[in-house]
Write a structure and sequence with these properties.
Elements lengths: L10 E2 L26 H21 L5 H27 L5 H6 L18 E2 L2 E2 L4 E2 L5 E3 L4 E3 L4 E3 L4 E3 L4 H31 L18 E4 L6 E4 H34 L4 H12 L1
Antiparallel strand pairs: 1-2, 2-3, 3-4, 5-6, 7-8, 9-10
Helix pairs in contact: 1-5, 2-4, 4-5
Enzyme class: transferase
InterPro entries: Palmitoyltrfase_DHHC, PFA4/ZDH16/20/ERF2-like
EC number: 2.3.1.225
Length: 279
């Protein structure tokens, strides 16, 4: 028997990285909106807001004729779907059923004492949450609670990903990737068309009063912000680079999770296997 009052017939490793030196929060976090918010979370918001403003305010209004309305509808629908699944994924409490039933979030969680316990979870019992947990549960250091079907703690969502929100996470990943591919297609068309025949990008009625071919109108139809060609091209290139960086990051994560699903693995299992092989 151990000091938790449970036998050690089955021992589950704790989810926290041993190299991580930061102390866990005193109170368990509920979801991705619980403090403290993570810097990566703010970065992801800033990147998507920037891309959305640039696309819907600058570049889509430049598309000719009916294509403008079609792209507004398709791109807007894709972005709206992504925002919905993202918000659901962040808002879900991924905690174990017994943890959520106990409603311990207002109570300070005890500090894990390695002199008393070998592992946080021993024989399917968490010494910190003080509840019985399922076989695939792990105690997340960042959230300071046991997560059902633990996969990983996502800093970009500021929430743990487990069995309760994994498919929302994957849907968020897939929808973000699809929207970014849509964005890069639009940007490449505009950049190429600007070099081939820029007049195609100037079909909006507001250009009737613009005599200089070196002047572009941004944020149509509500604001008629004028910009010279070098400024317009610079904005297009910067937004394209930002989109490609986002596409690369999310794309490799999407492929990684496809690999995990095809092999019936979780991120946690994969990292543990990699550590064993490296040692």
């Amino acid at each position: 028997m151990d000091s938790c009052g449970r036998s050690q017939r089955r021992v589950l490793p704790e989810s926290a990285s041993r190299a991580q030196q930061t102390l866990p929060p005193r109170l368990s976090r509920v979801n991705g909106w619980s403090k403290p918010l993570h810097g990566y979370q703010a970065v992801s918001w800033a990147m998507f807001v920037t891309l959305a403003l640039a696309m819907f305010g600058i570049f889509i209004p430049m598309l000719p004729g009916m294509w403008k309305n079609i792209v507004y509808g398709v791109s807007g629908g894709m972005l709206l779907f992504h925002v919905i699944v993202y918000l659901v994924c962040v808002s879900i409490d991924p905690g174990e059923d017994n943890v959520r039933r106990k409603k311990i979030y207002s109570e300070p969680v005890p500090t894990f004492d390695r002199s008393k316990h070998l592992h946080v979870i021993e024989d399917l019992y968490c010494c910190l949450c003080r509840v019985t947990v399922s076989e695939k549960a792990k105690h997340c250091r960042a959230c300071n609670k046991c997560i059902a079907g633990f996969d990983h703690h996502c800093k970009w969502l500021n929430n743990c990903i487990g069995s309760r929100n994994y498919w929302w996470f994957f849907s968020s990943l897939t929808s973000a990737l699809a929207w970014l591919l849509c964005v890069v297609s639009i940007l490449l068309y505009i950049v190429i068309q600007h070099h081939v025949d820029p007049r195609v990008l100037r079909t909006d009625p507001h250009y009737q009063n613009i005599t200089s071919q070196d002047t572009w109108l941004l944020f149509l139809p509500y604001f008629h912000l004028k910009a010279k060609t070098p400024v317009f091209v610079t904005i297009a290139v910067l937004v394209l680079v930002l989109d490609l960086i986002s596409l690369l990051m999310i794309g490799q994560l999407f492929i990684f999770h496809l690999y995990l699903m095809s092999n019936g693995m979780s991120t946690y299992n994969y990292l543990n296997r990699s550590r064993r092989h490296s040692s």
